[in-house]
């Protein structure tokens, strides 16, 4: 059976199914996304990265993503439940690594189009990819009810919504087995919820419950959100953020945030799931 080509990649074990669709011909339904991301009946992943030329999107490109028009390639990201997400920090790194791996870009510095606009990436020879994440917006404070406790934190936008909550003890003690209950007025579209603690100067431990995916091994935008929440307002900082799947570094200054971390392509093949 002739199937559709795919690749599999991850950034700090936040893993993705990559679908090359340069001319925008694939109709990617929620059902198809859920099946592809199913770890038993499908390929398995925290989400889908559809690789499409930006010009192929035409009028489907949202006004909020208009700066993406200057990028040749657009990252159409879907959560594992089929929902569309504005931005994915680990996904951008994996997407950039795939573009280089597949010979779709020249050089190691280029832009990737996302629903949060164009993101400049720098692909290193040793596996790391650095992404200019843009401005990080503090939007006040809020709280969330987890399975066994209420946590309080900073409401932060990194192109998508986050609630980044400092906790006093080890993040391993926090129960993330159930979806957090959020203030719907503060987060009408839901949000990713991070719990973090500073384990030594400049080093954070973090776990995350991702909107549309559940607890994941890592979340790039969540890593940036936690670093921003841990930084006094108006100041710059550099943080090492340790997650279940590895470690990334976040650089914060007056221009916004940059994030650097590993990204790897681990498999390629064909799938008949979309036939």
TrEMBL record:
Its EC number is 5.1.1.7. GO terms for molecular function: diaminopimelate epimerase activity. Belongs to the diaminopimelate epimerase family. The record marks 162, 210 as: Could be important to modulate the pK values of the two catalytic cysteine residues. The active site is at residues 88, 219. It catalyses: (2S,6S)-2,6-diaminopimelate = meso-2,6-diaminopimelate. It is an enzyme of class 5 (isomerase). Substrate binds at residues 14, 79, 89-90, 160, 192, 210-211, 220-221. Keywords: Amino-acid biosynthesis, Cytoplasm, Isomerase, Lysine biosynthesis. This is Diaminopimelate epimerase. It comes from the Bacteria. Catalyzes the stereoinversion of LL-2,6-diaminopimelate (L,L-DAP) to meso-diaminopimelate (meso-DAP), a precursor of L-lysine and an essential component of the bacterial peptidoglycan. Homodimer. Pathway: Amino-acid biosynthesis; L-lysine biosynthesis via DAP pathway; DL-2,6-diaminopimelate from LL-2,6-diaminopimelate: step 1/1. The keyword Cytoplasm applies. Pfam families: DAP_epimerase. It is found in: Cytoplasm.
């Amino acid at each position: 059976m002739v199937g559709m080509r795919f690749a599999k990649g991850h950034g700090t074990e936040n893993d993705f199914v990559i679908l090359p669709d340069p001319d925008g011909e694939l109709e990617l339904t929620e059902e198809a996304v859920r099946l592809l991301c199913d770890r038993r009946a499908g390929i398995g992943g925290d989400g889908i990265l559809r690789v499409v030329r930006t010009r192929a999107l035409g009028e489907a490109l949202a006004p909020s993503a208009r700066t993406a028009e200057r990028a040749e390639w657009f990252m159409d990201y879907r959560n594992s439940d089929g929902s569309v997400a504005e931005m994915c920090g680990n996904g951008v790194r994996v997407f950039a690594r795939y573009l280089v791996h597949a010979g779709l870009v020249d050089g190691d510095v280029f832009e990737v189009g996302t629903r949060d606009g164009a993101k400049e990436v720098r692909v290193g020879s040793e596996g790391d990819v650095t992404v200019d994440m843009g401005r990080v917006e503090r939007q006040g404070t809020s709280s969330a009810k987890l399975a066994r406790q209420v946590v309080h934190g900073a409401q932060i936008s990194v192109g998508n919504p986050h609630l980044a909550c400092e906790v006093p003890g080890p993040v391993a003690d926090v129960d993330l087995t159930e979806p957090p209950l959020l203030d719907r007025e503060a987060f009408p579209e839901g949000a990713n919820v991070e719990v973090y603690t500073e384990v030594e100067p400049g080093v954070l431990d973090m776990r995350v419950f991702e909107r549309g995916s559940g607890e994941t091994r890592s979340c790039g935008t969540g890593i940036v959100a936690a670093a921003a929440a841990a930084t006094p307002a108006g100041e710059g900082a550099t943080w090492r953020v340790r997650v279940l799947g590895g470690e990334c570094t976040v650089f914060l200054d007056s221009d916004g945030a940059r994030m650097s971390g590993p990204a790897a392509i681990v498999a390629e093949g064909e799938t008949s799931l979309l036939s």
